[in-house]
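Sample pair:
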Amino acid sequence: MAENRAEVLAGAVVLAAAVAFVGWAAGGDRLRAAGGSYPLHASFRSVEGITAGSDVRMAGVKVGTITDLRLNPQTYFADVTIAMQQDILLPDDSAILISSEGLLGGNYVELVPGGSPDNLGPGDEIEDTQGAVSLITLLMKFVSGKADSPDDPAGGTP
């Protein structure tokens, strides 16, 4: 009888943890576009590894979320909409780039603030963008030897 109670208790703990995880994954940690945020836009050549819901960080701290990702049929670039925290004001010469968390980590969007005295307002576009760099492409260049410097007389080999 004591074994049954222990099994039921263990099952209840596992079920509670699963419900908490589902609640967190459903958006308990995300910024909402409705309150406490304002939209910004950017256009990238490549957004590989980024989806709606991806983090937008500044100095490693989450300050926004990607809310929309669409292909622009005129420019063939990816148009991104960001929900930015209301209390974070970005200079209008700020840059936005897609960074990697590491060799095996995922990608996120990084904001690099500029030095302009004028700030971006709701609906403005960040013009200085840098898209995702494909790790596979970099590795292929390295393996094929195309990453060698033309100034290196030895061709990059010892």
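The first helix runs from residue 2 to 28.
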